[in-house]
Amino acid sequence: SQTIHQWPATLVQPVGSPLSLECTVEGTSNPNLYWYRQAAGRGLQLLFYSVGIGQISSEVPQNLSASRPQDRQFILSSKKLLLSDSGFYLCAWTSGGAYEQYFGPGTRLTVT
Amino acid sequence: DAKTTQPTSMDCAEGRAANLPCNHSTISGNEYVYWYRQIHSQGPQYIIHGLKNNETNEMASLIITEDRKSSTLILPHATLRDTAVYYCIVRVAGAGSYQLTFGKGTKLSVIP
To answer: Which residue of A has its CA nearest to B39?
Structure first.
């Protein structure tokens, strides 16, 4: 069966520090991968999606970036965090053309 | 993607059926209705989807009106673990349709 992992589960970082969040999927190949962010009390916002290795599409311009170095690995990064980057970051996957997306457990990021 | 309208919150007694409505009056012919839910501090969970016929799975039933302008998600016997925010999403399925646009959803509280 397929599983999706995210780490770390929680993170507290100072303003201006770098960020690296990792997501991996097991049990499938060539998945579409997604990064979402959910600010406190708000809905989910799609940040990036990827249909293959090295292929990244950005939905919202900001100081975050994403990379997909391997088929089932998706990384969210920032060189300098802002207070507004605080939130709940969710990774999701789907097989191409499938009807549903499967979400990971999320990373709760607090920028202080 | 068509816009959806859901009530902000609903209560349901434990053991009773929970009926969650969703309006999507601008839905187009090739758009599906999806339902997800998000339990507090977890990633969203896919529940069910449909095009025009009513659908049922082990989690819920989806009733779509004949004109497809509204739908109802039914949890037949709500339990305390069904307390969550429920999202109704309308989008085109298949390759090239990557983004799930989550609105604010309906916060369902199941009461003992």
So the answer is: A105
